[in-house]
Amino acid sequence: MNARPNPAFYALLVALMFMALGPIVLMVSNSLKLNVDITSPTATLLFTPTIQNYETALCHWLPYEPEHVRRCDRTFGRALGNSLIISLVSTAITLILGCMAAYALVRFRFMGRQVTSLTTLMVRMVPPAVLLVPVFGIWTFQFGIDGTIAGIVLIYVAMNLPFVIWILQSFIVQVPIQLEEAARMDGAGPFRTFFLVVLPLIKPGLAAAAIFTFRIAWNEFLLANALADRGSRTVPVTIVNSLTEYDIDWGVIMATGTLLAVPPILFTLVASRQIITGMTAGAVKG
């Protein structure tokens, strides 16, 4: 007979769930309130929801003009577009370069291969704060690409590439070399073998690397705050800059925070389907 679980276990589980979901629920609920309701000392859990905060944040993208918005501030709409471009482009470039580099480190034999593989992982261990000053100097005085979207994309690619190479190596090692040899015997060249044989078999690894890269690029603040200007700011930088000493629009800030969390969730759901598909592809025999 199995013993009953200790009630303290359920109490701890409820406390952990409250700590994890409490801030999210608070952010979403406050995004549906007016500032009067948020800052009121008599605020209750019962309130009349409104989408005015979302209309204020997305006024630039709406097909109509909200009545309560006197002057449409395009800052958040521009920042949201910048974040999407930077995250998607940096993720795509990182995956393309990372899978090719990982394949070369696994399949090719050359002097210093093990050292190169270990060095790529060690580079990823360097905190971004340590790279802030040298990267800012190089991007500003040598290349002159500070304040541009291309400059931010390049630094995110350089920052995430070592981890992508390291994680994809473990997936490429599991691909049987006999499949590549059979493709070469059928007349396939190196690139055709790589794109038609290897890549389809490492889709779970590509999806996992894509989720990691996209979330890092989407949420990164330190380097983006130092390199971006008014026209290339991302959403995290815009949210922090909207906090001033004299005026804090908590409703709009909560709405932008909620919108900030939506793209990574959607991207993770889409990419995770590739992980599940790859894991279950060979589970059922025909």
Written description of the protein model:
By secondary structure, the protein is mainly α. The chain contains 13 helices and no strands. The longest helix is centred in the first third of the chain and has 33 residues, at 75-107. The protein is globular. The protein starts with 6 loop residues before the first helix and ends in a 6-residue tail after the last helix. The model is unreliable at 281-286 (pLDDT under 50).
Question: What average pLDDT do the residues reach?
Answer: 83
The succession of helices and strands, N to C, reads HHHHHHHHHHHHH
Number of domains: 1
Distance between the termini: 41 Å
Question: Which runs of at least 5 residues are low in confidence (pLDDT < 50)?
Answer: 281-286
Rg on CA atoms, Å: 24 Å
CATH architecture: Orthogonal Bundle
Q: What level of helicity do the residues show?
A: over 70%
CATH superfamily, by name, is MetI-like
The number of distinct β-strands equals 0
The biggest beta sheet is recorded as: none
User: Helix- and strand-based class?
Assistant: mainly alpha
What are the SSEs and their pairings?
Blueprint: H1 7-31, H2 35-39, H3 52-57, H4 75-107, H5 113-124, H6 128-142, H7 149-172, H8 177-185, H9 190-201, H10 203-219, H11 222-227, H12 235-241, H13 250-280
Descriptive tags:
286 residues; mainly alpha; 13 helices; disordered C terminus
Short description:
The chain is mainly α and 286 residues long. The protein is built from 13 helices and no strands.
